User: Which sequence fits this backbone?
């Protein structure tokens, strides 16, 4: 019985997995925080890019063609 308890106490594989899990959770929280902070400015950037592409597409569609 004591051998089993000593073996379990020395086994650190579970502790290492928990540490990696905590690091992954911290990275996820930091990423979510950064995305939330940048969310408004990213929305503006993509909206402007979308509008510019729409304008360019309309201009290209309405441009006169030069048949040869």
Assistant:
């Amino acid at each position: 019985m004591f051998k089993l308890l000593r073996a379990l106490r020395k086994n650190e594989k579970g502790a290492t997995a928990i540490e990696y899990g905590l690091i992954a959770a911290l990275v996820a929280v930091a990423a979510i925080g950064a995305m939330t902070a940048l969310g408004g400015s990213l929305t503006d950037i993509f909206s402007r890019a979308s509008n510019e592409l729409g304008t360019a597409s309309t201009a290209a569609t309405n441009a006169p063609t030069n048949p040869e």
Q: What stands out?
A: The two ends are 94 Å apart (CA to CA).
